[in-house]
# Entry
Amino acid sequence: MSRILMDKGEVLAEQILFAETTSGRMKGLLGRAGLDRSTAMLIRPCRSIHMWFMRFSIDAAFLDAELRVLKVSRNLKPWQLAFAPPKTHSVLETAAGGLERVQPGEALILD
# Structure
């Protein structure tokens, strides 16, 4: 089982769902009623996300290839779009509020 840590060692998510295939990336969190606060989804490679047909709000961190945070979009609601900055390689999605302590420039650790 993998988890995501902040560079200070603080745990962001105890369980990581990986979306790394074409079908997995297309589906993402669609069809779910929610996401547990201890769980996150890492979509890679991924350069942008949308909230079409989603049933709950999320936080999203746009990451470079070394898992450094480029941008954080908080409380994305269903039907919103989120545009990725240049050099985005992957996106970490959590339940809304899950990335409240994460700031651009911070390195995340996949443990």
The helical segments are 22-27. The first strand starts at residue 4 and ends at 6. The first helix runs from residue 22 to 27.
